[in-house]
Amino acid sequence: MEAPEKQGDTVNIRTQKLAGTVNWGTATVVGVFAGMLYGGSKEASASVSKDAEVMLKLGSTPDKREQYRLMRDAMEKRFIRVTRGSIVGGIRLGMFTAVFYGLQNLLAEQRGVHDVYNVVGSGSATAAAFGLILPGSFHWRARNAMLGSVLGAAICFPLGWLHLKLVEKANEGNLSATSEVSEAKGGISAAVERLEGNLNK
């Protein structure tokens, strides 16, 4: 009889996530795939003009072997360009997403609250960091960092506000559903207790 009491006394030590914080790993994976899709499609659309040049060369060469070689080379180059664009785009957007959401979750954990200022701070810091790593002179990098910081804060403020409003709306729906479930559970547990009391008599 003591064993169930000990099991009931165990406490879940796991810290709860603040409402509205995003899972860092999931966001990074989504960022990588979105960057791959964007980079690959950008390179695929840019290679249309190069394909037109190949078609002109094909029309001017009567030799079938030369035409086949030109087509094969064009397809290989296009495949390499699209693949390189996908990889580079995935790495860039994935790194940006990882840093942005990592800083956002760190700020929320340190401050103990998830609000629009976490989103603004992480967006500003991420844009400034990426402005610093762009190629160029120190003056050019400092200018990019300052511009990125201001632009990141300006873009992230309305997006963060919108995100938090959507989270609040979702939590209102969850709270009403949870209260309905708890009321239903209360009715069921009361019925079970009455049945147990009748059986014990």
Mind explaining what this structure looks like?
The chain crosses the membrane at residues 85-104, 116-134, 146-164. Keywords: Membrane, Transmembrane, Transmembrane helix. One of its GO terms (cellular component) is mitochondrion. The chain is mainly alpha-helical and 201 residues long. It has helices at 2-9, 24-46, 48-60, 64-111, 116-132, 138-200. Helix content is 86%, strand content 0%. The chain has six helices and no strands. It is flat, with a radius of gyration of 29 Å. The longest helix has 63 residues, at 138-200. Residues 4-14 have low confidence and may be disordered.
Structural class: mainly alpha
What would you call the shape? Answer: flat
The biggest beta sheet reads: none
Overall average residue pLDDT: 77
Unreliable stretches covering 5 or more consecutive residues: 4-14
User: What proportion of the residues form beta strands (DSSP E)?
Assistant: under 5%
Number of helices: 6
Q: Helicity level, as a percent range?
A: over 70%
Order of helices and strands: HHHHHH
Q: How far do the termini sit from each other?
A: 21 Å
Number of strands: 0
Radius of gyration: 29 Å
Main location: membrane
Transmembrane segments: 85-104, 116-134, 146-164
Subcellular location: Membrane
Keywords: Membrane, Transmembrane, Transmembrane helix
